[in-house]
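Collaborator request log, item 7. Partner lab (contact: R.S.) asked for a structural prediction of Peptidyl-tRNA hydrolase to inform their binding assays.
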Amino acid sequence: MSAPWVVVGLGNPGPRYAGNRHNVGAMVVDELARRTGSTLKSHKARAVAAQARLGPLPGEPVVLAVPSSYMNESGGPVSALLKFFGAGPDRLVVAHDELDIEAGVVRLKRGGGEGGHNGLRSISQSLGTRDYYRVRVGIGRPPGRMDPADFVLRDFSAAERKELPFLLDDAADAVEALVRDGLLEAQQRFHSPR
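Returned to partner:
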């Protein structure tokens, strides 16, 4: 029996950060939990997690999780989750916000750099590898000279909030496609112009 996929959504804990752009990865996992009728519950790996199945029946076994730590300490919980569920980095999918992708666009990749993303950096350090899957949710660049750190820790604007359900839907579809059909097929679907 192969290990389940571990799908982690990155964000910061608590209501103060809940609507931030930086928490869009956690929002994607919330959407997947909603779709699968799962409830994320406290897990000893310093995360909230649920076991579910993604895709058409019988579905792929997955663990949906959001670290309970702050973003820059995501590596410990992610590493502990993989260990607990007997999964390697090759079964890890991390959903996260991406400044270098236009707002509203979803991209998938495996490996590569962290692009200054502290959550990804922490995960790569904890796992000793960058070779895991990422579902990159575009939030665009900050306006004018705004510091990117300030931008990601702000809530989505009113206009962005109108589009957010569609973005979360796309990102959740991308996770499902990746788990079900593999990276190349998922990339062909989400990277081609629509």
